[in-house]
Design goal:
five-stranded antiparallel β-sheet, globular, 13 helices, 19 strands
Length: 399
């Protein structure tokens, strides 16, 4: 498990991530939430006084246990599934920051629950995430999250707990005396790559690997973002494309756990922006139900690339936070089906109304599911002037 020194360094990095992720500076008196799983209590106890020392009004909340979550979905009737907790909207509307410490004791406990029931509850709470998205766009809210090692995660990743912990230590640079300094260096280098990517006038990107032949259209007023403090760790650079232009085949060779369900070998064929053929080597029915959660669930909300020079993650971690940032031999790309990110708008995201987002092709959904491919691949930018430029190959940006 993490040592006391590693916990202190983890807290340092999370505080850096929180401050970096917010567009406007934090002030004393800001309201900051720490949401943590029970197993992550040691990290929460280190982080809590740090936030108080910053002058924040810090609200600690422990997440419900996996047993309670299963009972909720098992026993709730339709009205209980969509019940709105009194005061929750007011609380969320006052939040200035949030740090989530995730440490699941089970990632399969919802496997027997009807995915449609889970989807109904998620859709009913979307109004809360919409509030936070609007606050973030206005610069009034920032967030970050991390994983804490557990036996459950290590078991499903095929590692010992010590091996799993070591992956977290390496990925977050907790073995360094001053990990924040290293994060700042990566942040600076990523700024240069994003500037290069955003300088191109791109009609569409072509992604090619052994199993992928996909065209992604960035659309108007888009920009690449990433390595912004939002996730610890995070090495991906990404944009939210115009979903309407997506066409071709995408394949996720990396397995995924979602809502207690295991999926592997997800294959999607896109036509006119929507996934019209949905298949999987394992979990096919679950994938199909997820992508029918709402109108936007079968569309692309994110396209992402990770440079292997940044990421030290070289093992499957049975957790999306790490798996979407896989470095390894070939780096990775991933798409997310479902919700798009307003902060990839090349302008003032606070001005993005629902109608304007729709006109620009930003996808809207209660779903956001990252599907990762780690195959050797090539990504070319087909420019508006007719030129073609390779931007990513052999796991690295060609900048």
């Amino acid at each position: 498990m993490l040592t006391q020194i590693q916990l202190e360094r983890y807290a340092d990095v999370l505080l850096w991530g929180l401050k970096t992720a917010r567009a406007e500076r934090f002030r004393k008196g800001d309201v900051v939430l720490i949401r943590y799983d029970l197993a992550a209590l040691p990290l929460a106890e280190v982080l809590y006084p740090r936030l108080l020392e910053e002058g924040f009004n810090t609200v600690p909340r422990m997440s419900i246990t996996e047993r309670m979550e299963k009972d909720y979905y098992r026993l709730s009737d339709q009205s209980q599934l969509v019940f709105k907790v009194p005061g929750e909207q007011e609380f969320v509307s006052s939040l200035n920051g949030s740090i989530s410490l995730r440490a699941p004791s089970s990632i399969t406990h919802l496997s027997s629950i009807d995915p449609a029931k889970i989807g109904k509850a998620i859709v009913s709470r979307k109004y809360l995430s919409d509030i936070l998205d609007a606050r973030e766009a206005a610069g009034a809210f920032g967030w970050t999250l991390c994983m804490y090692p557990t036996e459950e995660l290590s078991k499903h990743a095929g590692m010992s707990l010590d091996e799993y912990t070591d992956q977290i230590v390496r990925a977050c640079f907790l073995g360094r005396k001053h990990p924040v300094t290293h994060w700042k260096e990566i942040y600076k280098e990523a700024q240069s790559i994003k500037k290069w990517l955003n300088s191109m006038k791109v009609k569409f990107y072509h992604v090619e690997s052994e199993s992928i032949d996909l065209e992604i259209f960035p659309g108007a007023r888009r920009k690449w973002i990433g390595i912004s403090g939002h996730n610890i760790p995070s090495f991906e650079l990404f944009l939210s494309p115009d979903w309407r232009g997506t066409s071709g085949i995408y394949y996720a060779d990396q397995p995924s756990y979602r809502s207690g369900n295991y999926t592997k070998g997800v294959r999607l064929e896109f036509r006119n922006g929507s996934a019209v053929e949905i298949d999987a080597e394992e979990g096919r029915e679950f994938v199909q139900k997820q992508l029918s959660m709402d109108e936007g669930a079968n569309r692309v909300g994110e396209f992402s690339l990770t440079d292997k020079r940044f990421s030290k993650i070289d093992r499957y971690m049975a957790n999306t936070l790490f798996d979407e940032n896989y470095g390894g031999k070939n780096g990775n790309c991933h798409i997310a089906v479902g919700a798009s990110y307003s902060d990839t708008y090349d302008g003032n995201a606070a001005e993005l109304t629902r109608d304007k987002k729709a006109r620009l092709g930003f996808n809207d959904s209660a779903l956001h599911w990252d599907l990762v491919n780690t195959q050797d691949k090539k990504v070319t930018a087909h420019l508006e002037d007719g030129g073609i430029k390779t931007i990513y190959e052999k796991g690295i940006f060609t900048y």
